[in-house]
């Protein structure tokens, strides 16, 4: 926890702290905020404590979630602008509507013929400044509603592409149909969409089967605490 106050830990929670959390699998970012808020209220005895997170992490992802309390909530927007690093797994030869494991898996094309040159070509096309369409199962707002609200009701929805930047994109393990990766990207990047685009370029389909956020700017997940340790 980052604390620039010389006061007691309880007072620091109210005044302002930056807390690095290693978010568990299936937890929403709001779940973590709620647990930290309840913990802060219990520890400090204060009922009104500002608590927020600096960048959503999907329920099916694990890793670094930055929580800010008190006056440190003012730094949330600046933290959100920082680059992010992720590691994870794409599974080839299939796809899902959510681009991850949230929805049903649909078989795709063959992948057995793919080799390193195919992968290098896909990486080249998905590195640098690119246009990316967010998943329909996402929190992007459309006419005042979240995109996933339309998607879950099976209502037709067309999302516009957004400009993002992929600074680094490398494959760290190839064991088809699984491919492990490491990505460093800008704010607003959806790794689920990257998985979908990767599969489309290869012609076989792909979805995100595992994801972990390891870094936000200079904040590292190895310096984070497990949220269960503070409940």
Percentage of residues in helical conformation: 10-25%
Number of strands: 14
Largest sheet, in brief, is: 10 strands, mixed
The helix tally amounts to 6
Distance between the termini: 16 Å
- The radius of gyration over CA amounts to 19 Å
Q: SS-based structural class? A: alpha+beta
Query: What integer is the average pLDDT?
Result: 89
Note the beta-strand portion.
25-35%
Shape: elongated
Structural key phrases:
24% helix, elongated, alpha+beta, 10-stranded mixed beta sheet, 6 helices
Give the structure's gist in a few sentences:
This protein is an alpha+beta fold and 231 residues long.
Would you give an account of this structure?
This protein has 231 residues and is of the alpha+beta class. The chain is built from six helices and 14 strands. It has helices at 9-15, 29-44, 76-80, 116-125, 147-152, 191-202, and strands spanning 16-23, 51-53, 62-70, 84-92, 94-95, 106-107, 128-132, 141-142, 145-146, 162-175, 178-185, 206-216, 219-220, 225-226. Strand 8 (141-142) and strand 9 form a beta hairpin. It is elongated and about 60 Å long. The chain starts with 8 loop residues before the first helix and ends in a 5-residue tail after the last strand. The relative contact order is 0.21.
């Amino acid at each position: 926890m980052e604390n620039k106050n010389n006061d007691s830990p309880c007072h620091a929670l109210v005044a302002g702290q930056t807390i690095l959390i290693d978010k568990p699998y299936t937890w929403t970012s709001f779940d973590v905020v709620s647990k930290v808020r309840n913990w802060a209220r219990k520890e400090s005895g204060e009922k009104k404590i500002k608590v927020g997170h600096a960048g959503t992490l999907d329920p099916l992802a694990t890793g670094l979630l930055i929580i800010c309390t008190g006056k440190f909530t003012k730094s949330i927007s600046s933290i959100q602008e920082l680059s992010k690093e992720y590691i994870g797994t794409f599974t080839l030869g299939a796809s899902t509507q959510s681009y991850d494991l949230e929805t049903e898996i649909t078989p795709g094309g063959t992948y057995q013929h793919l080799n390193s040159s195919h992968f290098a070509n896909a990486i080249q096309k998905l590195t640098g400044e690119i246009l990316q369409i967010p998943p329909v199962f996402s929190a992007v707002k459309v006419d005042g509603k979240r995109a996933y609200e339309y998607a879950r009701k099976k209502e037709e929805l067309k999302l516009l592409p957004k400009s993002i930047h992929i600074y680094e994109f490398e494959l760290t393990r190839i064991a088809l149909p699984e491919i492990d990766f490491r990505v460093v990207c800008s704010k607003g990047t959806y790794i689920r969409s990257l998985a979908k685009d990767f599969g489309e370029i290869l012609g076989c389909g792909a979805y995100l089967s595992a994801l972990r956020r390891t870094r936000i700017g200079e904040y590292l997940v190895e310096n984070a605490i497990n949220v269960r340790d503070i409940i």
